[in-house]
Amino acid sequence: MEYIQSKQNQRIKDYRKLHLAKNRKKTGKYLIEGEHLLEEALAYHASIEVVLVTSSYYESHVNDIDPINQSSTEILILSDEVMDSLAFTQHTQGVMALVKKESDKFSNKELIGSHYLLCDGIQDPGNLGTMIRTADAAGFDGVLLAEGCVDLYNDKVIRASQGSLWHLPIYETSNDQLLKAIQTAKLPIYCTAVNQDAEDYRKHIGSKCVLVLGNEGQGVGTYWMKEAEKSVYIPMPGKAESLNVSIAAGILMFAWKQWQGEPNNH
Length: 266
Hints:
Shape: elongated
Number of strands: 12
Order of helices and strands: EHHEHEHHEHEEHEHEHEEEHEH
Strand order of the largest sheet: 8-7-6-11-9-12-10
Helix content: 25-40%
Radius of gyration: 21 Å
Largest sheet: 7 strands, parallel
Structural class: alpha/beta
């Protein structure tokens, strides 16, 4: 195990560059932080290349770290100062990891299953991570990231997902490629919208679906609206004008799965 005490160490400088999406895309690697995320990444066989820990963390978790060290994963021990310079959070737990992105998973893959969430231009990382986590919790078969979404490997996305990004398929590609796969799978598209043609979502739950939720400010874009079998809305008896997109996604996904196979007689 190597011990690094300088923030100017070249490896640390390279890892710090991964705070930026362009460098994550260039290298095909990203960082995760925290004990829970490391546990999830290990449990679901994410491609962990390096585990970085402070000396105090290593001493208190030696029985957890040593088995990792005996695998092909490298362990680096960092001084507290170096860890603080690399961490995303102000009060780090003293453990991070360098993870290799999955290869182009969408290439030549069919959509397996009947329920998908499609995120169209979701820009807030907390929202995207929460939507992925909720899709996982609701039992959806996967998440499709259309054009204009925040980087999946943004630290805030990963933390908000609580590890769900490793639990279910997430496909990120062009709108045209996503549409082709959806059409091949014969899945109907339902877009959230507030317009005169939109229907109460409860008329459609129970069917196969690709649920499309759009940008926080603009909603679902015209590309997906024109491909939708139907646009749907969530009735709101209160005075609020709208719902947070991740909340709306949760309501719709749980309703769709809860009534799967049930008659649409609501």
